[in-house]
Design a protein that fits this description.
Layout: H1 13-30, H2 35-51, E1 56-62, E2 65-71, H3 77-84, E3 103-106, E4 109-112, E5 125-127, H4 140-147, H5 157-169, H6 176-182, H7 193-205
Parallel strand pairs: 1-5
Antiparallel strand pairs: 1-2, 3-4, 3-5
Helix pairs in contact: 4-7, 5-7
């Protein structure tokens, strides 16, 4: 005897129900899998993904030193500097290009190195905070930051100084308001902004080469 039309199940209903039950059982089972097992599976997957990225040759100049490297295409300039070249002065802050702690100069222009792939800079000249000083002689902007106490915890300081140098070079240090505007991409969680502005103004007004 057949069911009335309004009680008949749509075609494929049983199959959909079985699929749903299987998926629910699988998810329930996964909740009881030990954490180390899940972590091991994740690590294995990460290794397989990494293996899929073949390294490519890269030539660039960092702080006056030429390098021939082999890097994965997904490697950021920040990670290359810190992990491959051991230039840890450039800091990893937000890793989203919002704090400015990773600022470096690429062919004289300031760049958030966390947002830039290393392979994009083939043949270019990179300057990091380590490349500003000349031996034991600090860069004028570094000296000004020390004099005006332009840092507290110091974590943002390398990026602040690199941006400050660029700010003067770009001609955007004509007033306190202009400095604040063109330094707004660099966050200081300690709030040393007035001291940073004072340091930049001293370098700008002193006519020192930056």
């Amino acid at each position: 005897m057949s069911l009335p039309p309004d009680l008949e199940q749509p075609a494929g209903h049983d199959e959909s129900r079985r699929t749903f039950l299987k998926q629910s059982s699988l998810l329930t089972a996964l909740t009881f899998v030990p954490g180390p097992v899940v972590q091991a599976a994740t690590n294995e997957l990460d290794e397989k993904v990494a293996a899929a990225f073949e390294k490519v040759p890269l030539k660039l100049e960092v702080n006056g030193v030429k390098h021939k490297l082999s890097v994965e295409p997904r490697t950021t300039l920040l990670d290359l500097l810190r992990e491959n070249l051991n230039l840890t002065g450039t800091k990893k802050g937000c890793d989203y290009g919002q704090c400015g702690a990773c600022t470096v100069h690429v062919d004289g222009q300031r760049v958030n190195s966390c947002l830039s792939f290393a392979v994009m800079h083939e043949g270019k000249k990179i300057t990091t905070i380590e490349g500003l000083a000349e031996g034991d002689k600090l860069h004028p902007m570094q000296e000004a930051f020390v004099k005006h106490d332009g840092f507290q915890c110091g974590y943002c300081t390398p990026g602040q100084i690199m941006s400050a140098v660029a700010c003067v070079r770009e001609g955007h240090a004509g007033s306190e308001a202009e400095i604040r505007e063109y330094m707004s991409g660099n966050i200081c969680r300690c709030g040393a902004y007035s001291n940073i502005v004072a340091a930049i103004q001293e370098v700008k007004n002193g006519g020192q080469k930056v």
